Amino acid sequence: MASGPERFAQATAHLPITPQRMPDSTHTAAEAAAAVGCEVGAIVKSLVFVAAHEPAPGAEDSDAARREPVLALVCGDNRADLDALAAVVGARIDKADAATVKLATGYSIGGVPPLGHPAPVRTVIDRDLLRFDTVWSAAGSAYDVFPASPQHLVEWTGGELADIGTR
After folding, report:
1. In what order do the strands lie in the sheet with 135-141?
2. Is the pLDDT of residue 120 over 60?
3. Are 100 and 131 in contact (CB under 8 A)?
């Protein structure tokens, strides 16, 4: 089986993305910023949550709320505002465990890219990323990153811009 960076490169081969392997870990936003030499805010944190949608009134199986993964792309110097994210997706937001992250995206925590997943994942993008000309995202591992404009991330992911970050 291909490594995370190899799978990412294959999934995004049609896009003008040039992943870079860093000598030091980029697992956290601070580590990534130090590795690439940018502000922490210019690091894209790809955070997976689970939206728990309530069943429709009168639904046959009222105990089975629909659950779907949601990818929040958040500025490295922001925290995800879960109430704001819940309002955007119209559902309660729960944290995803490592197995859910891997199942939804194909990647492990610390190396989750904003795109290149095996299946589409609903994506909400922190509007605060637009303050940067270039942002850096994971490219399949805790050592691989790629630069892009925030506008390209919106276009490539089909993500929805929203105020989901807080300092």
Report:
1. 20-21, 144-148, 135-141
2. yes
3. no
